[in-house]
Amino acid sequence: MNAHHLRKTGTRLFVALAAGFILAACAPREWLLPKLGIEPPRLHDFPADYQPPISAQTGQPMPGFGGGGTALPQTPVIFVHGNTVSARYWLPARRYFLDAGYPVNALWALGYGWDNVRYFDSNDLSVDSIERIVDSVTAYLSKTTGREIRQVDIVAHSLGVTLVRQWMLQTNGWHRVRNFVGACGANHGVWTAWPDARGQNRVVSFELAPGSPWLAQLNRHGETPGHTRYMMLYDGTGWADVLFPKPSEDSPALDGAYNIAYNREHGTYYDHLELPRVPETMRAIVDFLRAAAEPLPQAEPPTIVREGNVLRASQEDAQLHCTDDRRYPNAAMPPVREQPLAANRLYTCYAHNPRSGLSSPMARYMRSDPGEIRRSAPNLRASPPPGSYEQPQRIRLETDDPQAFIVYSIAGPPESGSPLYTEPIYIAGPVRLQALAIAPDGSTSAPLVLDYDISLELIEARRTLQRQLEPDTPVHYTAQRRKGR
Amino acid sequence: MHRLLALILALSVPGLAQAGIVFTPHLSEYARLAPGQYTEFTLITTEIEEIYDRNGRKVHTGAPFIPPGDSVDATLLLLKYLWIGNLFRDSEIGFLRDRPQFCRIIGTLGHQQATGNAVRRGLTAGQHSGASGLGDLFGLCGIYGLEHRYGPLKFNGLFGTTVKFPIGRYDTDSLLNTGTNYWSVIPQLAVHAELFGRIYLDGTVAWQFNGDNDEPAFGGLTPTDPADVRNLEVNLAWKFSEHWFADIGWSYRETIGPNRYDKFTLNLRDQPLPPTTACNSTQALLGFSIPDALCNSLEFFYLEPRPGPYRDRGIKGTLLTAGLYYIYRTSTVLNLRVAQPISGRGGQIDAVYDVYAMPPDSPGAAPISQLVSTQNAVQEAASVSASPYLELRLVYLFWAP
């Protein structure tokens, strides 16, 4: 075969290969391969009896890894990935943790999002997925080990950091997380997110733009609530992690956390994707996780008991951590045996048992004297009303009871420990907002359930070419969102 | 006896060296970028007033047959689409599942036009001197290597192969063309390195295997067998901030051996030539001369070129580039770059013309003399511009915030 034939053959091969790649580029393999009767490969390294939860985004069982043994001598670790990637991101960490002595049963990672750069994930839209992941892992391990697994350690990266923080906030779930390690999280914003973003990425951009109302909401009542131990790992030089240049190089740090600006402190140059996955930083993560005492295996968590206007923990050796300034308490607050309730103050408390290592959920209380005559339960109303909007909305909640406080959640029915309403709630994506007004005596308003749809599709439906020409043309908007939006 | 026949038509016009430009790297050209789809629009414009001759000397375009001042004005628009992804992720194919793949399609549109005397001289050979339209199509696919880190140094390799599909507009009677009329297959190895998170190095070695061109343009002054070309390019960038980068680059390309020309037909359109034209060596319009003995004995002359084969000495060119990048948000990159040739060698051949006293195709016609003319080869494969070009580039990421 001469050079001419070689070139011709090579060219044909290349053209065939290029055609395949271009087809793949235009049509994602998750769409294309099933059409050809082929199951797209996905990471699925779970025990046969484990059913991964359904992703709130894709509607499919989440890919990932976890489990595989029977021994579970320590708190399981759940790895939460960042935007546009999936559980495979944590495969190097799994190898490292196994080498460091973790049992395979203790290491879990599930892909919650789209796993595709065309469809950005976001915080608010993924909260449900994190809830499902934690529920699924703890339920499975409780079943297979024969003891209640009440706590997990979470190691999150990038979007996963703010996502897990939002999940803990919205579900009042701090007591379920013993350690939280966040690497390269946009806790105070990221320069790549813009508050006027348009397109499929806009929900996460609204959320994580520096100075965004969403971040203010996340951080407003304390950056490290609960008895959870926090470690924030990040670049700190402003050069190695492209997402946090100067002057926002300390954006990932949290007030009250063990903050490690790793590159700045160690003279290294690990970038955004490398930082939590190199041996040096993983050693630091493992050391941090292991520094916490393991919870007693069969212990029950404490609860908060109210006796008149005094709060106590339900267990003898448990104590209360309370604040009365609308901030969430955390481990830094001095513990007290009992907490009397003063007039006109709102207390936020949790009970923690240092012996068992377990905590109660957060709860809020106000003084209520028996002689007080109260009228009916408070009423609650919202404006603007639920519906579809083009742009993010600030939802104002009002109650007719001036002594009542208002809590809300985007992750199910709120309770007294849910996010406290102090300023209008910023809604950037399609969420179901539920709110409740709670009077000092514990009576509550009827739950308010509000569906807000901040929709790019609505914008597109309203601004069709036909409507430009004939403004009276009806808007065909069915509240159906395309994926990733 | 033989004296130099300096034909009027030897303009030597490089056109834009599309393949060379395509492979001159930019900032992070070979980095393992995030998976996704990227689009790029590059506008390149130049006024070619100078070229390199076969001895590496810089001469003005059309020298010595037209005076300085004329040029070839060329504009090239590159439309690029890049896909990066991994078709094999999560699969059992160990090598590929960890190494993203990429494909790039580059379409080109061009406009080239010679000016003034260059046009008039082209017309004497019945040749056009301008071209507009679709250029060749480049398809590139490849695979990234793994990323490695040693302290502040991070780097990755890349292997890719480009095929140039000769679909561009091509006119055999034109001095300039936007297409090349020959296939090329270009495997390349490249590396991207980052140092201290602020210094970016991109380099590549590419080997361009060129196919044959059975229909050369401009009377056979484009090679019928373009030589293969080796390319070596390096680009060094400095990051001032997330929004501003500057870079300098060095680019070298050289043919491996000579270009071959075996369909040389370039000739004057209007023949026979009267002695008043053919024998006046100072005649500015024609600029050649016939030996005095013939001039004194004949009333008309006919010229007939010998088709070849001929060879040039191969071509080469070295460029320095300097550019400035502005990154708007993360979705848009604006890039302004200037490229300055610093050395080169263009293609020239010593073509043989037979001189006849009657039409060469007449029965019994025989050459009465042979003359040698140094012809400057034309277009991308054979000519090398010595003039700077300006590049304006816009990169847009569909999916970025």
TrEMBL record, chain A:
Domain annotation GH29D-like beta-sandwich: ranges: 384-446
Biological processes annotated in GO: lipid catabolic process
Pfam families for this protein: CHB_HEX_C_1 (PF13290), Lipase_2 (PF01674)
SUPFAM superfamilies: alpha/beta-Hydrolases
GO molecular function, one term: lipase activity
Region (Disordered): 372-392
Domain of life, per lineage: Bacteria
InterPro entries: AB_hydrolase_fold, GH29D-like_dom, Lipase_EstA/Esterase_EstB
Name of the molecule in the record: Chitobiase/beta-hexosaminidase C-terminal domain-containing protein
Species name: Fontimonas thermophila
Automatic annotation (TrEMBL), chain B:
N-terminal signal peptide: 1-19
A UniProt-annotated Pfam family: Phenol_MetA_deg
Keywords: Signal
Keyword Signal on entry: yes
InterPro entries in UniProt: FApF (IPR025737)
Top-rank taxon: Bacteria
Protein name listed in UniProt: Putative MetA-pathway of phenol degradation
Protein source organism: Fontimonas thermophila
